[in-house]
Design goal:
Layout (H helix, E strand, L loop, with lengths): L3 H21 L5 H17 L14 E4 L5 H11 L5 H5 L29 H20 L11 E6 H5 L1 H13 L4 E7 L2 E2 L2 E2 L8 H8 L2 E6 L3 H13 L5 E6 L22 H10 L12 H7 L1 H23 L1 H11 L6 H7 L6 E6 H15 L3 E5 L3 H4 L18 E3 L4 H14 L3 E7 L3 H14 L4 E5 L17 H6 L5 E3 L4 H13 L5 E4 L4 E4 L16 E4 L5 E3 L2 E3 L2 E5 L3 H14 L4 E5 L3 H5 L3 H7 L7 E5 L8 H4 L4 E3 L10 H7 L4 H17 L3
Parallel strand pairs: 1-2, 2-3, 3-7, 6-7, 9-10, 9-11, 11-12, 12-14, 13-14, 19-20, 19-21, 21-22
Antiparallel strand pairs: 4-5, 8-15, 16-20, 17-18
Helix pairs in contact: 1-2, 1-3, 1-11, 2-3, 2-9, 5-7, 5-17, 7-17, 12-13, 15-20, 17-18, 21-26
Length: 683
C-alpha cells in the first residue's frame, strides 16, 4: 500500500477530481483530494464489487454520503472499470451527463444512492445494512451463506452535524449492525471555515456511546487505514466508524486545510502547483497513466471471481433449498406475487354504517398482505399501536432476531424515512413506515429523495386531519396534503373507506418507481355499501364516480348533473350526506371519490372529464378537511372548496367539523346559497 504505483493511483484520483472541477468551474475538489488515500484502500483491498455487474445482488454497498465530493466516486468508478468514461469525467456537472454535481442512483453505474443533502446517505446506508441482516437471517442456511456482504460509506463532518445522522447512528448501534463500516473524513473544515466555529464535540466518544466500534487513524496512512478496515470487518456485533484524520485539499500548496478548497475550483495555477507537488505533470489534464489503468483495472478481475463464486454458491443453494431459492430470486428481482394472489389475500370489508378508522382497516389489510408478500418489512416511529403497523406473529427485527419483520424505529422519523430508502435500494424487501401525518415534516427529506430516486417506499400516515380531535393544532395536519402533493413523483392516497384502503395498499405495493403515502384517519368512517355505490376497485384511477346524480343531462357526449362533489378520506361520507340533502332539494348531485390527485392526473382527459364534467352552469365542489390549496385545478374558478386554510383547535372531532363549517348541513346550505346567488347574477 506504499508502493510508487499506489502513490500514482491515489494522486491520479486527486488530479482527475481537480481537473473535472476546474473544467466545470464548479464543484468540490478538497474532499476527494483529502480522502483519496482511504478511498483507494477501501476500493482496491476490501470492497467486493464487480464493475461489469454493478447490480450483482451480493456485492458490497458503497455510499458516498458526502455527496458534494462526487468526483472522488466518479474517479473511482472510471479507474476501476465501470461504465464511466474519461469523457464522462470531462462532462462533470454538464447537461445530460452521467456525472452530475451530486451522485444520482439509476443514472450512473455503481452509484448506490442519491446523496447530497448531508446526513441522508449516512442514514440510507443504515437501511441497506438492515436489509442485508434481515435477508441473511431469512435465507442463509448452514453451509450456504448466500447473503453476506458489507455496507461501507464515506461520511463527513457535515454529515455528522445533521440530526438525521444522530438518529441513524443511535439506531444502528442499538441494532448491532456489524456489517456497517463507515470511514469518517475528519478534515475539520466546513464551508464557513474551521469546524472549531461550530462543531467541537468528541465524535469518537459519541459513537462509542451509541454502541459503535471506533478506530482513529491517520487518513493518509494507507497501511493504517487497511488495518483499521480489516479490524472493523472482524467486529461482528457493532457497526464501525473509522475516524480518518485527513487534510482537505491534500497536496495543494496554498489551499490545503482551507475552506477555500471545499466548494470551489482551486484555480488553474493552483491545480498546476498541486500536480507538481504530487509529482505529476502539470501540463497534462485528465491524464491516466497506464500503470494506474493496469493496477486499478484489476477490480474487474477480482469482481468477476467474486461474482462467479457467488453464482456457484447460488447454484448449490438452489439444489439444496429449491423453494427458498425460488422465493429469494423473486425478491431479488423485485417481482411481486401475481394480482390474483394479492386479490385473493384481501377480503372485502362488509358494509358498516359505523365503520372503522382507516388506520384500523389498514392494519387489517396488512395482516392479510403479510401472508402473501413476505418481503413486507416495517413498523412505526414509536406509534405502533396508533398506526396499526404491527404484523402479528412475524417477530421484531433486533440484534437477536434479524429475521423479524416488525421494526421499532423509536422516535426517529428522520432516520426511519432514510433507512426505508436504503432498504428499498438494497432490494429483497419492501419497507413501510408509520407515524402521524403531521410528522411527515420530519420524513420530508427522505420522501423527496425517494421521489427523485424512484424508490418505492411506503408511508402509513395516520391521524390525517382535525378528525384526530383533542390533541389539538400541533398534531392536526392542515397544509400537509397540499405540500406533499406538490412534490413530483409522489403518490398520495387518502382512501374514503375500508375497501378503498385495501385498494390503496395494492396501489402502493405495485408502484415501483416512487414513494406512496397512505393518509389514514384516527376516527371511524363508514364502510360504504358497494351494492349502492361504485366498486372501490376504481381507486386505482385516482378518482371515480361513486354515485351518479338522480338526473344527469348529456352535454357534448358527457353526462352532467347540477352539482359534482369531490371528496377524499373521511369527508367522502360527508359528501354522500350532502348529496342526499341536495337531491331532496331537487338538485341533481354526483359524488366523486378522489383518493389520489396524482393517479387521476395520469388518466386520459376524456376519462377525467367523464368524472368531473366541464360544462357551463355545472358546479364542482370539493370537501377535504385540510388546506384548499390546489383544489382550483379540479373545481375551477367558479367552484367551491370546503376545507381549512387555518390551523385547527383542541376539541372532539365532531365539534371541530361543526365549528369549522365541515358538517353536511353547513355545506349543503352553503351550496344552496351559492347556487341562488349565481342564479340571481344570471350565471
Amino acid at each position: 500500500m506504499t508502493s510508487s504505483v499506489d502513490d500514482l493511483c491515489v494522486n491520479t484520483i486527486r488530479a482527475l477530481s481537480m481537473d473535472a472541477v476546474q473544467q466545470a468551474n464548479s464543484g468540490h475538489p478538497g474532499m476527494p483530494m483529502g480522502m483519496a488515500d482511504a478511498a483507494y484502500v477501501l476500493w482496491t483491498q476490501h470492497l467486493s464489487h464487480h464493475p461489469h455487474q454493478p447490480n450483482w445482488f451480493n456485492r458490497d454497498r458503497f455510499v458516498l454520503s458526502a455527496g458534494h465530493g462526487s468526483m472522488l466516486l466518479y474517479s473511482l468508478l472510471h479507474l476501476t472499470g465501470y461504465d464511466v468514461s474519461l469523457d464522462d469525467l470531462k462532462a462533470f456537472r454538464q447537461w445530460d451527463s452521467i456525472t452530475p454535481g451530486h451522485p444520482e442512483v439509476g443514472l450512473t453505474a455503481g452509484v448506490e444512492t442519491t446523496t447530497g443533502p448531508l446526513g441522508q446517505g449516512f442514514a440510507t446506508g443504515v437501511g441497506m445494512a438492515m436489509a442485508e441482516a434481515h435477508l441473511a437471517a431469512r435465507f442463509n442456511r448452514e453451509g450456504h451463506q448466500i447473503i453476506d456482504h458489507h455496507t461501507y460509506a464515506i461520511v463527513s463532518d457535515g454529515d455528522l452535524m445533521e440530526g438525521v445522522s444522530h438518529e441513524a447512528a443511535s439506531m444502528a448501534g442499538h441494532m448491532k449492525l456489524g456489517k456497517l463500516i463507515y470511514l469518517y473524513d475528519a478534515n475539520r473544515i466546513s464551508i464557513d471555515g474551521s469546524t472549531d466555529l461550530s462543531f467541537t464535540e468528541d465524535v469518537a466518544t459519541r459513537f462509542t456511546s451509541y454502541g459503535w466500534h471506533v478506530i482513529e487513524v491517520d487518513g493518509h496512512d494507507r497501511e493504517a487505514v487497511d488495518q483499521a478496515i480489516a479490524k472493523a470487518k472482524s467486529v461482528e456485533d457493532q457497526p464501525s466508524l473509522v475516524v480518518c484524520r485527513t487534510h482537505i485539499g491534500f497536496g495543494s500548496p496554498n489551499k490545503q486545510d482551507s475552506e477555500s478548497s471545499h466548494g470551489a475550483p482551486l484555480g488553474e495555477e493552483e491545480v498546476a502547483a498541486t500536480k507538481k507537488a504530487l509529482g505529476l505533470d502539470p501540463s497534462k489534464t485528465f491524464d491516466v497513466p497506464v500503470e494506474v489503468t493496469d493496477a486499478m483495472g484489476q477490480a474487474t478481475e477480482r469482481g468477476n471471481e467474486a461474482h462467479e463464486g457467488w453464482l456457484d454458491r447460488l447454484d448449490a443453494y438452489r439444489e439444496a433449498f429449491p423453494e427458498l431459492s425460488q422465493e429469494l430470486e423473486r425478491r431479488m428481482a423485485g417481482e411481486l406475487p401475481t394480482d390474483d394472489v394479492l386479490d385473493a389475500a384481501i377480503k372485502p370489508f362488509p358494509t358498516d354504517a359505523k365503520g372503522m378508522a382507516s388506520r384500523k382497516s389498514s392494519g387489517a389489510v396488512l395482516q392479510q398482505l403479510k401472508e402473501v408478500v413476505p418481503e413486507l418489512v416495517g413498523g412505526s416511529a414509536d406509534l405502533t399501536g396508533s398506526n396499526n403497523t404491527f404484523m402479528d406473529d412475524e417477530g421484531i427485527f433486533s440484534s437477536t432476531n434479524y429475521a423479524g419483520r416488525n421494526i421499532h424505529y423509536g422516535v426517529r422519523e428522520h432516520a426511519m424515512g432514510a433507512a426505508m430508502n436504503g432498504m428499498a435500494l438494497h432490494g429483497g424487501v419492501r419497507p413501510f413506515g408509520g407515524t402521524f401525518m403531521v410528522f411527515s415534516d420530519y420524513c420530508r427529506p427522505a420522501i423527496r429523495l425517494a421521489a427523485l430516486s424512484h424508490i418505492p417506499a411506503i408511508y402509513v400516515f395516520t391521524h390525517d386531519s382535525i378528525g384526530l380531535g383533542e390533541d389539538g393544532p400541533t398534531h392536526q395536519p392542515i397544509e400537509h396534503l397540499a405540500s406533499l402533493r406538490a412534490m413530483p413523483n409522489v403518490c398520495v392516497l387518502r382512501p374514503g373507506d375500508a375497501n378503498e384502503v385495501a385498494e390503496a395498499w395494492k396501489v402502493a405495493l405495485k408502484r415501483q418507481d416512487g414513494p406512496t403515502l397512505l393518509m389514514l384517519t384516527r376516527q371511524n368512517i363508514p364502510t360504504l355499501d358497494r351494492s349502492v355505490f361504485a366498486s372501490a376497485s376504481h381507486t386505482t384511477k385516482g378518482a371515480y364516480i361513486l354515485k351518479h346524480g338522480s338526473v344527469e343531462h348529456e352535454v357534448q357526449g358527457v353526462a352532467v348533473p347540477d352539482v359534482t362533489i369531490c371528496a377524499t378520506g373521511s369527508e367522502l361520507a360527508v359528501a354522500t350526506e350532502v348529496a342526499q340533502l341536495l337531491e331532496e332539494s331537487s338538485v341533481s348531485t354526483r359524488v366523486v371519490s378522489m383518493p389520489s390527485w396524482e393517479l387521476f392526473d395520469h388518466q386520459s382527459e376524456t376519462y377525467q372529464h367523464s368524472v368531473i364534467p366541464q360544462a357551463d352552469g355545472h358546479l364542482v365542489v370539493s370537501i377535504e378537511a385540510g388546506s384548499t390549496f390546489g383544489w382550483k385545478n379540479w373545481v375551477g374558478e367558479q367552484g367551491l372548496s370546503f376545507g381549512l386554510d387555518h390551523f385547527g383547535a383542541s376539541a372532539p372531532a365532531e365539534v371541530l367539523f361543526e365549528k369549522f363549517g365541515l358538517s353536511a348541513n353547513a355545506i349543503y346550505e352553503a351550496i344552496l346559497a351559492h347556487r341562488s346567488s349565481q342564479k340571481d347574477a344570471g350565471v
